[in-house]
Amino acid sequence: MGICNCARVKSQLFNAIAEVAILRLGEFNEKALANIVWAFATAKVSHPLFFGEVAETLFSAIAEEAVTRLGEFKPLGLSNTAWAFATVKVTQRRLFEAVADSVTTT
Predict the structure, then answer these.
(1) Burial of 63 (0-12, 13-18, 19+ CB in 10 A)
(2) For residue range 28-40, what is the model confidence (pLDDT) as tens digits?
């Protein structure tokens, strides 16, 4: 399997994961929310082609879910989530403000 074909297959895999995850975010605990954005951010660091429109939609949906459930996050989950969003350069002002408030009020 050539490099181009392998990248396409991995991109399809990440898109499929994102599509299913978007539909089931309410079932994810805080650790799963943090882990999925961490995984996508880690993949983008190594392979920018993996991060497409579906992944951006996933990040937006996770940001909204995380804001409403931020009190459930442990420090590691907060830091991994913030790192992931910063790494992929997805701006979610509401999420970052909520994380900052959470950190400064505890």
Answers:
(1) buried
(2) 999 999 999 999 8
